[in-house]
Amino acid sequence: MPKQLADEVYSLLECVCSDRSALTRSGAVLACESCGARHPIVDGVPVILNEDSVFEAGEIIRQYREAPKNPRPSWFGRARRFIPRIGSNLSADDSAARIHEMLAGVERPRVLVVGGGDSGAGMASILDNPRYLVVESDVYFGPRCNIIADGHDLPFKDGAFDAVICQAVLEHVARPQRCIDEMHRVLAPRGVFFVDIPFMYPVHMGAYDFTRFSLGGLRLACRSFEEASAGISGGPFQAIAQTTFHSMRGLSRSRAWQGFVFFGLPWLIFWLHYLDKPLRHRPQAGDGASGVYFLGRRSDRRRSEREVIQQYWRYHTAAKRPLLAGGVTAPGVAYQSIAGQASEETSAGR
Fold it and tell me: Measured between alpha carbons, how far is 319 from 339 in angstroms, rounded to an integer?
């Protein structure tokens, strides 16, 4: 059963129509005063989706109603619990602790999780903390989800939340920047924002996998936030392990081979991701990272593209670059440096 939305959250809701009007709750329905839309509340979970969303409310509700209420775990799922993991999140625990610190001055922090059908890595201390009012949104009735909403059109008022958490979600949305802008909108001034996304990572969730971000690309997408920290959540050795797993999986579709890949191969490569721990604070590791993260505060200032680009060179201290006034790398020098670096890497790989 999904979690019911707390009564105090209903005052934060608004319709996803163009007027962003207030919603009136009447029994198991939320009615829009402007467009007349009627959004259902199913087992205490509001379903508020725009008509233009790729997700259809009726279909989501139908699948939920038809799904077994207490499904028995499959033998495959039970067996995989005994197989070593070939990756881990290097930053989630530290990021959760940092989020606690950043929210220390807020009496009753309101936290929105975008893509919260299941608990994200390292966030249990926040999601299960009675001090926080946690709203966990997703596009399916997950075990933790208490509102069905599309990240492209969040059904909340401006500045409704003190923190927004978005883990392993942006790669699955059609327009990542639109979702980031929506999360920026629903954050209170100086609100806390945490996002985690794959970089050098194979496709997962099939047709619903669209995007990858380098650390620089994630910083650029989040330039409306004041950065508190950013770095790798999965290192380059985890990327090697994941690529090996998916490459081997593609060699044959036979059941015997697939059985070896899922149950045998992890024992041969699980140790690789432990090599990432010494690299987690080294800027160079971000260039081949399995995943990257960004933690910051909502800002009214939008950083320029030049600032974001310069940030890369500032952290890569081994490659010093001549600077122009204002600390911006001269474009010609930067190009020559990049070309030279690429030539050196090509030669080294021969």
Answer: 13
